[in-house]
Amino acid sequence: MRGTHILALSGGVGGAKLADGLMQAVGDGQLSVAVNTGDDFSHLGLHISPDIDTALYTLAGLANPATGWGRRDETWTFMAALEQLGGETWFRLGDGDLATHVERTRRLAAGEPLSAIVDDFVRRLGIAAAIVPMSDQPLRTRVHSDEGVFDFQDYFVRLQCRPVTRSIEFVGADKASPCPALLQALADPALGAIVICPSNPYLSIAPILAVPGLREALRAAGVPVVAVSPLVGGAAVKGPTAKIMAELGIPVSADEIARHYGELLDGFVLDVRDAALRARIAQPVHVTDTLMLTPADRVRVAGETLDFARRLRALR
Ligand code: FO1
To answer: Is the separation of the CB atoms in 293 and 253 below 8 Å?
Structure first.
């Protein structure tokens, strides 16, 4: 049926919370989540896909509630043993989480595409939505800063986002193509809306939009594209969105996020604390409390976003 399927674009923790709410709101098999793989890296000989794993654990109800990344009820024997041996411990891999990285790395080395491995993990974890890497080809986010050029996790975790960002590069973007399952979701006659989750627009959504042809394919899908603001009261809920905007010379204000997405957007969900900015946003706006502190908040924000998209579709 037309309008029943939803495609969400997501980075890590904040995006996964809304994706979880969307999954509850639309029902089994009606959501596809296209996830950023610009943060992926090779570490301790393992292929790590942090945003994919955050989506997997969050939608499976396995996420660590304190950090948002990694697994709940995790143990850290591997990290402690590694530390004793003088190994690299700046990137924390829990014992249960380690299994995900070991199995993914083994299957990638055997020639399976990342999307097939993630799809199988989704099925085994009993997740009622599709989780799709933005691309099966490597596209890596690299931060140019006042202290040099850093791979994403070096900047984000090891250096705790301290260097001042000058620009952001997506290495390999020219050779990447959208994952076939993502193009299939866009071509699905049942597609009703595309939701850009409240992830960092510059670090987490920009790599997805940098995959050649994807921005055009999102527009060509012919359904409303709605973004949920990652800024609440002029500050990021989590992560360096506000810091990066300031460093790139962009005013730290939700209307700048709507301007950043520009022509791609049909509607913008603005937090109630920023309601005064409404008149400065070119696209139709829905104002609500976008903070997702509880599971019920996730479902409420998702439901309001979908209702808003439905109203925009009815106006077409
Ligand atoms: N983030 C941290 O701040 N510190 C960590 O040690 C860390 C480990 C980690 C392990 C597995 C995983 O899937 C994610 C992990 N993250 C960690 C989160 C992640 O690196 C970032 O939040 C994302 O890349 C940004 O979306």
So the answer is: no
Q: Please, are residues 31 and 223 in contact by the beta-carbon 8 Å criterion?
A: no
Q: At what angle do helices 50-59 and 13-26 cross, to 10 degrees?
A: 40
Which of 62, 186, 99 shows the shortest CA–CA distance to 134? 186
Name the band, by pLDDT with cuts 50, 70 and 90, for residue 73.
very high
Does the C-beta of 91 come closer than 6 Å to ligand 1?
A: yes
Contact between 32 and 132 (Cβ < 8 Å): yes
Residue 286 clears pLDDT 80, i.e. is over it: yes
How far is residue 139 from each of residues 79, 184, 227, measured CA to CA in Å? 28, 21, 23
* 92 CA closest ligand 1 atom index: 6
Q: Which residue has the tokens 């969105």?
A: 241
Q: What is the CATH number of domain 5-314?
A: 3.40.50.10680
Separation of CA 285 and ligand 1 centre (Å): 32
Amino acid identity, residue 145?
Answer: S
Closest to 32 in 3D by CA, of 230, 273, 240, 223: 223
Nearest-atom index, ligand 1, CA of 199: 26
